[in-house]
Structure formats: C-alpha cells, structure tokens
Amino acid sequence: MRSKILKFPATLGKSGVYLLITTATATATGLGLAFQFIPKNDNNNSRHSSLTSSHSIPALFHAFLRSSRAISTIACTVVDYKYSLHGLPEDSDDYLRKLSEVHLRSAKRILKLCEANKGFYVKAGQFVAAMRQVPKEYSSTLSSLQDQAVPCHFKAIKKVLISNLGQDLSEM
C-alpha cells in the first residue's frame, strides 16, 4: 500500500518528479551559494563572524526569500495536484481535462518563480522547457524563458563580480 503523503497522479509520472527535483535543487543550490559567497571578516576568518557583517545580512535575506518562494511554489503545486484530481477516475475525460488545467496553473506558478528569483532559476526553467518529457503545458509556458527573459545590464553584472571577487576583472 502506497503512502498518502505527497502522492502524485499516475500520469504525472517522471515529468512531475523532474520538475520537483529541479526546483528543490535550485533551492538547495541557492542556499549553498549564499553561504559560500558571504564575504569573510578580515579580522577573524571564522564563518560565524562573517554572518554578522553588513554584506552578509542582505545576502542571507535574499537567499531566504528566494528559498521561501521556491518552497511555497512546490507546496502549492503539490497541493494543487493532490486536491484538484482527488476522487476523479484516472481514465475519465474529466480527469484528463483537470490534469491539463493543473499542469497549466503549475507551469504559470513555476514561471512566476523563475522570473522572480532570476539567475539559476531562469536557467532551470529553460532546461525544463527544453525537455521532451514534461507536459506540453509546462514546455509552452516556460518556453518564454528561452527568449523573453528579462535582460540584465552589464553594469549590474560587473557590480556583482566586483563584490564577489573583490576586484574588477580588468585588474586580475
């Protein structure tokens, strides 16, 4: 007997698992990178002293915010699949119609997450959009990340690089 916790519809199959794994990986990576790139205090090289520096607090806040968005998106998606399809026979037309609706709602939710969190999330969304295994609602919705992603000005990129590397690229 299968557990009722996080039970997905049978037709969701591998594609749903790929989407959840991609989002969970993005969340974990975001948190890991936030801690990795927190500048260390020059007076004391311990990680704990760097957590109180003025540069690390915004980084931690943004990491927490991005992770919270990802976790809430995953939770909403799981709950949506669970309750929207509850009680419908898997071989019925109503089930297939509802499944398509849930796919579309979930894809829009994930698109919104990718656009809000930017960076790695946009890349993960582009990867999912290019996969043939995902439902068409996901690939068509997330395909807007392929060519309509919001561009980032080089000045902003340069500022982040200088902040993370400690010096301008031309000085290296």
UniProtKB/TrEMBL annotation:
Q: Which InterPro entries match?
A: Mito_struct-func_regulator
Keywords assigned: Membrane, Transmembrane, Transmembrane helix
Annotated membrane-spanning segments are 16-38
Going by the entry's taxonomy, the superkingdom of the source organism is recorded as Eukaryota
Name under which the protein is recorded: Uncharacterized protein
Q: Which organism is it from?
A: Fagus sylvatica (Beechnut)
